[in-house]
Design brief:
mainly alpha
Length: about 110
């Protein structure tokens, strides 16, 4: 049987019209989603910083606003999970990723 897919990688959720599939997200999905979210965010920030054109509102401010969409989604879902339905596994993820996320934010 194939491994279940990580719902965070299926598409970007979080709009008012479409909520994340909370019923299919399990604790094991968070670590890979946090890692991928930070990786993508770093790539998006590097693309903004290294943009060949002079800075404009669109290629800087708007691009910064869009950057980190996956990471933001994972953080919001995880925050809801830790508030509403925590357990030892979720607490362990929180302990492992709090310093990594803090370091990521500091670097930004």
């Amino acid at each position: 049987m194939p491994a279940p897919t990580n719902p965070f990688f299926e598409k970007t959720f979080g709009t008012l019209d479409e909520a994340p599939p909370f019923d299919r997200i399990v604790p094991a999905h968070f670590a890979p989603a946090f890692d991928e979210g930070m990786r993508r965010h770093n790539e998006e920030l590097a693309a903004i910083a290294n943009h060949p054109e002079p800075p404009t509102f669109a290629n800087t401010v708007e691009a910064l606003d869009r950057a980190g969409a996956l990471l933001g989604l994972v953080e919001r879902v995880f925050s809801h999970r830790t508030s509403a339905h925590t357990d030892k596994e979720v607490q362990a993820i929180d302990e492992a990723y709090a310093p990594k996320l803090s370091q990521h934010r500091d670097a930004v």
